[in-house]
Amino acid sequence: MELVVLNGASNIAKSVIRNLTASGTYNKVRMLDFRPYRTGVTALQRELASNGIAMEKRQTTNASDLALAMEGAEHCVYFPHDYVSMTSDKNNFLIATAKLA
Q1: How many domains does the chain have?
Q2: DSSP characters for 58-97?
Q3: φ, ψ at 22 (rounded to 5°)
Q4: Which helix (DSSP H) or strand (DSSP E) does residue 17 occupy?
Q5: What is the DSSP-derived secondary structure letter of residue 39?
């Protein structure tokens, strides 16, 4: 089963992802974030791969990106974080997520 994680690059989100995938319920994670290619996310991707869990990273910077990236999602988790940087963009991202959900 696939878990879709929005704004999953924060440390809190990565910890939750580890716990959710450790339960054995999810064998794939789709990471949607403004900056999904951070070093910490790549490290998490390697860690999950060593446990047999595939992780796909997608950069989402606007409502259109988000709509495409969420296509077919059944289980989603949203993490609001980093409201210090790019506040107006993150607010728009939160609004678009709520509309798609």
Answers
A1: 1
A2: EE--SHHHHHHHTTT--EEEE----TTSSHHHHHHHHHHH
A3: -65, -25
A4: helix 11-22
A5: H
What phi and psi values does residue 25 have, to the nearest 5 degrees?
Answer: -75, -35
Taking alpha carbons only, the member of 52, 69, 67 closest to residue 98 is: 67
Model pTM score:
0.77
Closest CA relative to residue 99, chosen from 50, 73, 66, 75: 66
Task: Determine how many CB atoms are found less than 10 A away from the CB of residue 96.
Answer: 19
Q: If pLDDT is split at 50, 70 and 90, which confidence band does 85 have?
A: low
Q: Domain holding 12: CATH number?
A: 3.40.50.720
Number of neighbours of residue 71 by Cβ within 10 angstroms: 10
Q: In which domain, by residue range, is 43 found?
A: 2-100
How far is C-alpha 47 from the chain's CA centre?
Answer: 16
